[in-house]
Each structure stands twice: as C-alpha cells, then as structure tokens.
Design a protein that fits this description.
EC 1.2.4.4, Transketo_C/PFOR_II, 7-stranded mixed sheet, 327 residues, Transketolase_C, 5-stranded mixed sheet, alpha/beta, oxidoreductase, 14 strands
Length: 327
C-alpha cells in the first residue's frame, strides 16, 4: 500500500486488521461469514486465505456465543476482534457485553484484562430495514467499562482499529456502513492522534457542529453551504463516544458561542443529550444560543422508501444552524 494512497474506509479497515495480525500472532478475527466470504461487506476479504482458518474464524450464527467465546479467548491471552454482521444483530450478545465483558476488569480488581474489540457496521443509508440500520451507540456508551469509537474517514479507520486492538480494554468499534466506499487519503507512516481525541476538521467562528461517524461528511457539506451564505461553521469530529473529548469541544464552543450536535441515532436520549448537557454546564456564559440537537426520530427504523425522511440530511442540519444563529 502506498504511503499516501487514497482508499475506501472498507479497505482501510482490512489493511488495519492485516497490520495488527502481522504484528501480533495473538490477534484473531472471528464472526459470521468473515472468513471464506470475506464478510457481507467484504471488509475481511482475503484475511482467511492469508492467515488461515485458525486465526480468521467463521462462527455459527450465534452472537452471544461469539462474544462469549471471545471473552474466554481474551482471558487466555488472545486479542479477539469480533465482527457483528449488522448493528441490530448485536442484541443477542448484549448480556455478554454489558454484564461480562464490560465488568471483568473491575470485578477482578484490575487483575484481569479483556482486550476484545467488537466491530459493528452501524447506521443507515444502504436501503436496509430495521435490525440492519440501527444506531445503538448510546446503549453501549452508557455502560461503564466499555470504550466506544467510530471513524469517519480512511485514515481514522486504519489507525483507530489498530489502537483499539493494541489496548487492554474492551472496545466497541462502530463502522459507518454507508461510508464504507467513501475514499480518502491514508498515510500509513503518520503518527495517529490519540484514540479518544476529537478533531477539528473544519475551522469556523460563528457556530460549532459536532458529529461522529457517518454524519461528519454531512456536517462538512453543511459548512460549505453555510460559507456560501456568509456563515462560518466549525466542524468537530468527536471520533470517540466513551470517553468523549469534551475539552476540544469546549474550546470550540467558547470560540463560536453556538453548538449543534448531529447524529443518526434518535434525538431522544441520544448521545447529543449528554453532550448538550455537559457543554451547557461548561460553557454557560459563552453560549449565545441553546445547544440544539439533530438526529433520527424516536421510531423504529423505516422501510427504504422513507429512509431519506428519517435520516438527518443537509436541509435538516442547515435548519438547525439557521435557528441557532437566529438567537
């Protein structure tokens, strides 16, 4: 791979898995159809051929069993990377994740480490129905003991996964599936940002847009349209949801005086609520408008014909920007 090659997020994740497996023989990849098929999105394509069936394991269709097995392997010194085929398929394993995986380290008073990474393709935009287009990140971010990260570009996809695998904590690695084929530049020799550090991807002075995963691209598009209208919008890619880098976000809001938080998940009890509360506490005297939130509706994920109405897009985010600037 060229040092500055422009590649898709899917290929960046594949390259990241390869790099981790080459660096550490204890790294295993396991999940439904990850081996011979290369995954339903072909993200693990070719890994079983190159590393063998003992390290790239096609599992039964049993998410609880997959995660439970990964926990056992981690306790024996391995570093399993589990793929959940679709976001909505993770719930049969929810008990294993929140009552076992997240608690083992604390339960053992720090004597036990469980370095399991759970890869979850998440969110919508691919014309699929419920259980294939969910955004369950807030459910996991609420659970102490889990780290939650999500990349929005190829470089982060490549580096953040390797950082997650190399760490000793359980990590939920959410992959924005509708961005799998988006291309961006990857520098394989760069020094990556810390795993849980937010990044300002577009500088501005009038308002801050905070987003993560699939919505970062939407917010960057919003910033371009706003600039044509004479509005200066700063875009912050949160990258991590547990922990959240509130310091970077706070600095941005203290500069702009306004914040709009954007995510695909429903607004009701979503990650935006926690962010809005924290920033209001930290930046009360700097805010020129209430923190606004843009997201999905509090309803089951709709059929594909209604998907564009459900997902927050350019117009809905621009409307929130206009409302914030009108105060």
């Amino acid at each position: 791979m060229a040092v500055h090659e422009k590649i898709t997020i899917a290929k960046a994740i594949n390259a990241s898995l390869r790099a981790s497996m080459e660096a550490d023989p204890k790294v295993l990849v396991m999940g439904e159809d990850v081996g011979k098929l290369g995954g339903v999105f072909r993200v693990t394509d070719g890994l079983q051929k190159d590393f063998g069936e003992d390290r790239v394991i096609d599992t039964p269709l049993a998410e609880s069993g997959i995660v439970g097995t990964a926990i056992g392997l981690a306790l024996r010194g391995y570093r399993p990377v589990v793929e959940i085929q679709f976001d909505g398929f993770v719930f049969p394993a929810y008990d294993q994740i929140v009552t076992q995986l997240a608690k083992m380290h604390a339960r053992a008073l720090g004597k036990v480490k469980v370095p399991v990474v759970i890869r979850i393709p998440y969110a919508g935009g691919i014309g699929a129905v419920e259980h294939h287009s969910e955004s369950p990140e807030a459910l996991f971010a609420h659970v102490a003991g889990l780290k939650i990260v999500t990349p929005s570009n190829s470089s982060d996809a490549y580096w953040m996964l390797q950082q997650a695998i190399a760490g000793d904590d359980p990590v939920i690695y959410f992959e924005p599936k509708r961005r799998y084929h988006d291309k961006s530049r990857l520098d394989t020799e760069s020094i990556p940002d810390p795993l849980h550090k937010a990044r300002i991807t577009q500088s501005g002075s009038d308002l801050t847009l905070a987003a993560y995963g699939p919505m970062v691209k939407v917010c960057l598009d919003v910033a371009k349209v706003a600039a044509e209208e004479g509005k200066s919008v700063e875009v912050v890619d949160l990258r991590s949801l547990s922990p959240i880098d509130f310091d970077t976000l706070q600095s941005s809001v203290q500069k702009t005086g306004r914040l709009v938080v954007v995510h695909e998940a429903p607004v009701f009890f979503g990650a935006g609520a926690e962010i809005a509360a924290r920033i209001t506490e930290r930046c009360f005297y700097h805010l020129e408008a209430p923190v606004l939130r843009v997201g999905g509706f509090h309803a089951p994920y709709p059929p594909s014909r209604l998907e564009d109405e459900y997902l927050p897009g350019l117009d809905r985010v621009l409307d929130a920007v206009d409302r914030a600037l009108a105060y």
